[in-house]
Amino acid sequence: MNLKKQRGMTLLEIIIVLGIIGTIAAGVVILAQRAYDSKAMTDLTTNINTIRTAMKDAYGSTGIYPLPAGTATAALNDQTITEDAGRATPIGKLIALGKLSTDEAKNNISNDFISAGAGDISANGVQKGYFIEINGLNRQQCRNILLQAGNSFDYVEVTDNAPAGAYHYNNTSVDLAGTLTGVTAAVPGADAAHPGTPALLTGSGIFRSLAANGNTQITADGVITACNDDSSNSVVLGSR
């Protein structure tokens, strides 16, 4: 009888230990995934800023930015980006000019090369601006890009038809002075009892632009309802 009890306790202890190990392992996996996601977002934000600098460096002095080639850009791979197909796209031209490396030109979330192109800065269609489109984002990734990069650009738009392998803008310039959509304007604070509220962004839309009253301040509270519950979000960032 004592032997049976001893064996029973030993088996119970093993089960408990295995349960603890499983719980710890699950926690480690979650933390590792969060660390990976955080690094991916940091790397992508770095690439956005690098491409922004490259666009200004290559085209800023003339103000003649190339039209986008979204479909062609989405079809590029690590080999064709440095061939004629790549050089026919704005991002491939930046690589050919030595302004970017192939790694810096890539969206490490969708695994596509990043699409870029000309932006109109007035109703007359003067293409003296540019934009960058980041595709294949889920809702949380989309919100993080808005928060990390949005306020440093003149134009910010979210679309919901650009999964990995596709772009919203193909071969037309973006109107950087477009009318805001999907934005509930901020309410200024009146006093300590009425501190005001930030601008609220909802779903897809033009959240920031060169239009009158288009200089939306993007905040953490404001992006909570931004973007869409799928992986077809793209964030379009433009500047003069």
Question: What keyword list fits this structure?
Answer:
TcpA-like pilin, 35% helix, six-stranded mixed sheet, 8 strands, alpha+beta
Overview in brief:
The chain has about 240 residues and is of the alpha+beta class. The protein has one domain (about 55-240): TcpA-like pilin, CATH 3.30.1690. It is built from 5 helices and 8 strands; from the N terminus they run ααααββαββββββ.
Report on the structure:
The structure is a single chain. The longest helix has 58 residues, at 2-59. This protein has a single domain (54-239), classed as 2-Layer Sandwich (TcpA-like pilin), CATH 3.30.1690. 35% of the residues lie in helices and 15% in strands. The protein has 240 residues and is of the alpha+beta class. The radius of gyration is 24 Å and the shape is flat. A hairpin with an 8-residue loop joins strand 1 and strand 2 (129-137).
